[in-house]
Amino acid sequence: MIRILLVDDQTLVRQGIQTLLDLEADLTVVGTAVNGQQAIELVERLQPDVVLMDIRMPVMDGVAATREICRRWPHIGVIILTTFDDDEYVIEGLKAGARGYMLKDADSSDIVASIRIVARGEALIQPSITRKVLAEFSRLAASAPATRPSPLAEPLTEREMDVLHGIAAGHSNREIADQLCISEGTVKNYVSSLLAKLAVRDRTQAIIRARELGLLP
Q1: What is the C-alpha to C-alpha distance for residues 187 and 16, in angstroms, rounded to an integer?
Q2: What's the confidence (pLDDT) of residue 85?
Q3: Of the candidates 111, 141, 171, which is a domain's last residue?
Q4: The domain spanning residue 5 has which CATH number?
Q5: 42 & 129 share domain
Q6: Buried b vs exposed e over 51-84: b needs ≥16 C-beta within 10 Å?
Q7: Where does the HTH luxR-type domain start and stop, copy by copy (predicted)?
């Protein structure tokens, strides 16, 4: 059973999302919060598997709360679920440590799928938002001094590069497995290997590091 904490200052939104999640046999909402500060307090007490976090809230916003939760409980996955797809919110949310970023107008099946993916320790960014992230990194790279970090001690294999491109496209392990005609377990092994080689802890950081190294366009 995947235990979920809902964080949103709008009562109707919380009730609507909870009704949606209650239809899934493997998901259970263990608590709700109306601001970031309350979310941190409930995470400490309830230890959910996944936190669905809004951004704009009183007392403490979702980005600040996400940063604190990811710092104190890195095993808990945070998904930003919001109406805002502005570049600033997207980048700040991911930099804070969120493993997922979804818009509230996404299909309900996609929101449910994102919870399961993040609960497995993976990351998922809505494809339309992934394009914004890559565009922002391209802009930052173009404006930064023309220096490159040290090359990898061990280069990525051809298959690891295939998996990396799938990650950059916002695909889940299962989707990458289907595209490459390999098992999902094999994809997980490739992901673990490329994260180790890139010296990063999650898929979002892998994209950032790979772009710094010129491995991604």
Answers
A1: 35
A2: 60
A3: 141
A4: 3.40.50.2300
A5: yes
A6: bbbbbebeeebbbbbbbbbbeebeebbbbbbbeb
A7: 149-214
Nearest to 208 by CA among 120, 125, 137, 146: 137
**What letter does residue 147 receive in the DSSP assignment?**
-
Full-model pTM: 0.69
What is the distance of C-alpha 154 from the center of its chain?
A: 26
Which among 95, 9, 107, 88 is positioned nearest to 52, based on CA atoms?
9
What are the tokens at 135? 């565009």
Does residue 149 lie in a domain region? Answer: no
How does pLDDT run across 19-48, given as a tens digit for each residue?
A: 999 999 999 999 999 999 999 999 999 999
Residues in Cβ contact with 52 at an 8 Å cutoff, skipping those fewer than 6 apart = 4, 5, 6, 7, 8, 17, 79, 81, 115
Side-chain-side CA neighbours of 176 within 13 Å: the count stands at 25
Residue 99 lies in a domain: yes
Q: What is the extent of the structural domain holding 190?
A: 156-211
Q: d(Cα 204, Cα 209) in Å, to the nearest integer?
A: 9
- Looking at the structure, tell me whether residues 24 and 66 fall in a common domain: yes
Residues 81 and 188 in one domain: no
